[in-house]
Specification:
The protein is α/β, with parallel strands linked by helices. It folds into 2 domains: 197 residues, Rossmann fold (3-Layer(aba) Sandwich), CATH 3.40.50; 66 residues, Orthogonal Bundle (Helicase, Ruva Protein, domain 3). The strands form 2 sheets. A 7-stranded mixed sheet has the order 4-3-2-5-6-9-7, with helices on both faces. It has a two-stranded antiparallel ribbon with strand order 1-8. The protein is elongated.
Length: 279
């Protein structure tokens, strides 16, 4: 059934609070599933089911789909779009309020996340998965194009920031598809892109994930300030101590956070933990 028809038949009213823009193009849906490399052996987690078009496409290629949807008013729409689909279960709860460990109990082993994420809550969802998921092997999400640029940015570019590093320390991220706004109903005001993040366990030897996260956030808290000044101000450290640590890690004393790669941030945070300057 056409997505517009399903919405009209169910007398569904869009809720601006949830940023609802549903994928309407079948070829695009199939392309996303293909890029996610979903097979009949895979269980899938979908966040933000919406009208169920992606859910249906995923169900055709996967073993089972568990989908979270916050808007219970979509139930009559999904009753139509997912009619006859037996290998999918829709959970009408807010994913951000769920304990990720409890969610992962749904899956027998590793699983894949595939989702058309609501723009208003994209970053928190990605961070919840990156930092909290233990069994996720791949994340493939549709996001606002400018967010995709930040997720996949290189050091010393305008888009490079804290979320870039948070993703890169745990996964290999790549923008795999640009998507025009005309592929959605209703049509949003921005274009989108699909980002694929392959999780790499123990990608970097972190002494403390918290310390790494704290150092990264500190580095980008005031982008115009040098990394040294941000470290001194954020953690109340002595300048001489900070300069010694930066020198040991091969970091220019006048460098700013956006100039440093992930491995340098790892080396720096590990050294601060080793010296008991951070936990």
């Amino acid at each position: 059934m056409d997505i517009k028809s399903a919405i009209l038949n169910a007398d569904f009213r869009f809720n601006k609070r949830y940023g609802q823009n549903f994928i309407r193009d079948d070829n695009l849906l199939d392309k996303i599933v293909s890029l996610a490399e979903v097979t009949q052996a895979d269980e899938v987690l979908e966040i933000g089911v919406g009208a169920g078009t992606l859910t249906r496409a995923l169900s055709k290629k996967s073993k089972f789909v568990y989908g979270y949807e916050i808007d219970k008013n979509l139930q009559p729409v999904l009753a139509q779009t997912l009619s006859g689909v037996e290998n999918a279960e829709i959970i009408f709860r807010d994913f951000m309020r769920e304990d990720i460990a409890e969610t992962e109990k749904l899956f027998k082993g590793e699983y894949v996340v595939v989702a058309n994420l609501p723009y208003y809550i994209t970053s928190p969802i990605i961070m919840k998965l990156i930092e909290g998921a233990k069994k996720c092997k791949r994340i493939v999400v549709m996001v606002q194009k400018e967010v995709a640029s930040r997720l996949c940015a290189k050091a010393d570019t305008p888009d490079y920031g804290a979320i870039t590093l948070a993703v890169d320390v745990a996964a290999n991220a790549k923008c795999v598809l640009d998507v025009g706004r005309q592929n959605f109903y209703p049509v949003p005001n921005v274009d989108s892109a699909v980002v694929k993040m392959d999780i790499v366990k123990d990608k970097y030897p972190l002494a403390s994930r918290k310390a790494f996260r704290d150092v990264v956030r500190c580095a980008f808290s005031s982008r115009r300030k040098t990394l040294a000044n941000n470290l001194i101000n954020t953690f109340s450290l002595k300048r001489a101590d900070v300069e010694n640590v930066l020198s040991e890690c091969g970091v220019d004393l006048n460098a700013r956070g956006e100039a440093l790669s992930t491995d340098v941030f790892v080396k720096l945070s590990n050294k601060l933990v080793e010296l008991k300057m951070l936990k």
